[in-house]
Specification:
single chain; 293 residues; alpha/beta; Inosine-uridine Nucleoside N-ribohydrolase, Chain A; two-stranded antiparallel ribbon; 13 helices; 21% strand; globular; binds beta-D-ribofuranose; binds calcium ion
């Protein structure tokens, strides 16, 4: 499976990327970055740092520095000033390959046979919306999009009904939902069920494997940003986990749209696949296994 990871790393993005880079069945053709959890220069540097830790030479392309219609809202409270919770990652071993993520996506989609590349979206959907605007023929060659974002029946995390990735760039999300892609959304309804606690952190650390130890440090940092929580949700790892382990997810179809003022998901005309449940113990075991590869 060839994938492009579009991301704003980000603590949970980093864990998702480490899992994907080390998975033998996933060929990560590129990592494209977007402003979201923190500004674009930091998310781009972090993508390179994550590749360096994983021993991967996957090309990194930087993309959109700001959302399509609203001002950027960095979330340094959760992901720290460096976007990775202050965890000690190596410096990138190579510079970003380009500063035009959309052109890189287009080139990869045109170079591969139609419907052989999946897009894994871990941040705001700005880059994908720009691809739809600038290169619709290339976008039509995407096999499948899996995106973390939104809150369907659950409360949001940045507003009563709004989740960060969609609320950060609601206009982009609205364009993506309307595009008729094979689109699977993993909202907070599912990701809040996939939680890490102190015991899981200890298991990751005890494994002795570098990606697992780094993930333990990342989740520790995530805990440090919250008071009194016994567990923390691992949102973005659900994306590559769903790609490889669909049997552990409950997927339904829903008719949805994006409310542009708030970024909330509301009933609407776009029929998409939505993960509403998951088998957390099975997925925790799979993530641990994958981070020890
Ligand atoms: C999403 O927002 C970001 O803070 C996380 O990385 C995740 O992609 C969760 O709402
Ligand atoms: Ca993210």
């Amino acid at each position: 499976m060839t994938i492009i990871i579009d991301t704003d790393p980000g603590i949970d993005d980093a864990i998702a990327i480490l899992y994907a880079l080390r998975h033998p069945a996933m060929d990560v053709a590129a990592i494209t970055t977007v402003a979201g959890n923190i500004g674009l220069s930091v998310t781009t540097r972090n993508a390179g740092r994550i590749c360096a830790l994983a021993g991967s030479d996957t090309p990194v392309h930087s993309g959109a520095a700001a959302p399509l219609g609203v001002k950027a809202r960095p979330e340094t409270g959760i992901h720290g000033n460096d976007g990775l919770g202050g965890v000690d990652f190596p410096e990138p071993t190579q510079a970003p390959r380009s500063t035009d993520a959309v052109a890189a996506m287009e080139a990869l989609l045109e170079a591969h046979p139609p419907r052989t590349i999946d897009l894994h979206c871990l941040g705001p959907l700005t880059n994908l919306a720009l691809l739809l605007q600038r290169a619709p023929k290339a976008a039509a060659r995407i096999r499948r999009v899996i995106a973390m974002g939104g809150a369907v029946d659950e409360p949001g995390n940045v507003g009563p009904k709004s989740e960060f990735n969609i609320a950060h760039d609601p206009h982009a999300a609205a364009e993506v939902l309307a595009a008729g892609l094979d689109f699977t959304l993993i909202p907070l309804d599912a990701t809040r069920q996939f939680r890490a606690d102190k015991i899981y952190i200890a298991e990751l650390r005890a494994s002795g494997h570098t990606p697992a130890i780094a993930s333990a440090a990342l989740i520790d940092a995530y805990f440090a940003a919250t008071n009194g929580a016994e567990s923390r949700p691992l949102h973005d790892p659900c994306v590559p986990l769903l790609a490889q382990n669909p049997q552990h997810f409950r997927i339904v179809t829903r008719d949805l749209a994006v409310e542009l003022n708030t970024g909330a998901l509301v009933p609407g005309p776009h029929r998409i696949k939505v993960a509403m449940g998951l088998d957390a113990p099975a997925l925790r075991a799979e993530l641990l296994r994958g981070l020890c590869a």
